[in-house]
Structures are given as C-alpha cells and as structure tokens.
Write a structure and sequence with these properties.
Layout: H1 2-29, E1 33-37, E2 40-43, E3 52-59, E4 62-69, E5 97-101, E6 104-107, E7 110-112, E8 115-122, E9 128-133, E10 148-174, E11 177-196
Antiparallel strand pairs: 1-2, 3-4, 4-5, 5-8, 6-7, 6-11, 8-9, 9-10, 10-11
Length: 197
C-alpha cells in the first residue's frame, strides 16, 4: 500500500515538473509585450523598455499634443549607432510618434493642415530632416515614404549636458510662434512653427 502511495506521489511530482517546464518554455518562446498604452503594446525582446510619454501646449489658442515612446540611453552610444545616420528614424520607439494640432501650422517650410500625423526624422551628423507622414499608428519599422506630407530641415545644437531619456518639447516663443525640439544624448534637433488662425 505504501509503495503504491509513493509511486502515485512520484508521478504527480513528475507531472507538475513537466507543466512548469512547458509553461516556462512557452513564455520564453513568445514575443515579450509590456505595458499597453494608447491601445498599442510595447514589443521587443530587449531588457530596456521605452515607456509612453506625451507633451502638450496651447499656443495662440491652438491645442497641440504629441504622443511618443521615450527610450533611454542606458550607457549606449545613441547618435550614429543606436540611431543611425542616414536612415529614417521613428523619433522615439515602438510605434510612430504622433502629432495632433487643432489649427493649421507653418512648420519649417511646410504648410500643415490641422489634423493628426506621424513624425519621423532623418538624422545626420551635420543635418536633420523632419518628416511629416499622413499615416498614424504605424509600427516603428513600417515607414511608408509614399505617405509623406513633406520634409523640412531642422536646426542642430550640441547640448552641454547629455539627456538620458529621449524627450520631445513644444516651446512657446510668444504670440503664435513656437518650437518643436527633440533632445537625446547631447543632440538637440529643433524646428520653428507658426500657428495659422
């Protein structure tokens, strides 16, 4: 009787061990999703996460906001490596950065009608281009140039102190003027805009 109980216990332990191993293997094999915000999961296998962030501004009666994901450096070389020069970047992480404006804008050389767009950039060592795309909600690698509204040059500045976590700013400059700025590592890429009423 005792031998039978011992055998049953051994089989139960073995079965439990198999379930734990199978579940661990299945979780390791699946893509890693963390933090669903704004209806989009953050996707990837990296131990580094890029949390959702946003910035808002009211400039001359125009309410603007930008939704993006904010990666951090974590000791990595950013410009020219993690963010390669000469390649279109999603200007954040995970999903395309989205800008929404309630009024028409003049941003750089572009006359942008009110609405929502995605923001992409083409970084370079000496020059950056801002890309306004008519699509929104794309995965960060799903850039479609045929959907571009337009491109315009940005101003570059070297910062005195490095910025650990990527940040977007909407800066009021007085009246109907403002500046869109992107900051990471020791690089600031910015562009002026005007609210058109």
């Amino acid at each position: 009787m005792k031998m039978r109980q011992v055998l049953i216990a051994a089989v139960a332990i073995a079965a439990l061990g198999a379930i734990v191993v199978a579940r661990t293997y299945r979780q390791a094999a699946l893509p890693h999703y963390v933090g669903i915000e704004h209806g989009f999961p953050q996707f990837g296998y990296s131990r580094y996460t890029s949390p959702p962030a946003n910035v808002e501004a009211n400039i001359d009666g125009d309410h603007m906001h930008i939704d993006y994901y904010a990666p951090s450096a974590h000791g990595r070389k950013i410009m020219g490596e993690l963010v390669p020069y000469g390649e279109v970047w999603c200007t954040g992480a995970n999903w395309a950065t989205k800008i929404t404006t309630e009024n028409d804008l003049k941003i750089g050389d572009l006359n942008l009608p009110k609405g929502s767009y995605s923001i992409w950039t083409l970084p370079g060592e000496k020059q950056w281009m801002l890309i306004i795309n008519k699509q929104t909600g794309q995965f960060h690698k799903d850039y479609d140039q045929s959907q571009d509204f337009g491109r315009t040059k940005m101003n570059l500045k070297t910062l005195d102190q490095p910025v650990e976590t990527f940040r977007i700013e909407l800066r009021p400059n007085g009246g109907n003027q403002g500046t869109l700025a992107l900051l990471w590592e020791k690089t600031e890429a910015s562009i002026p805009f005007t609210v058109k009423n």
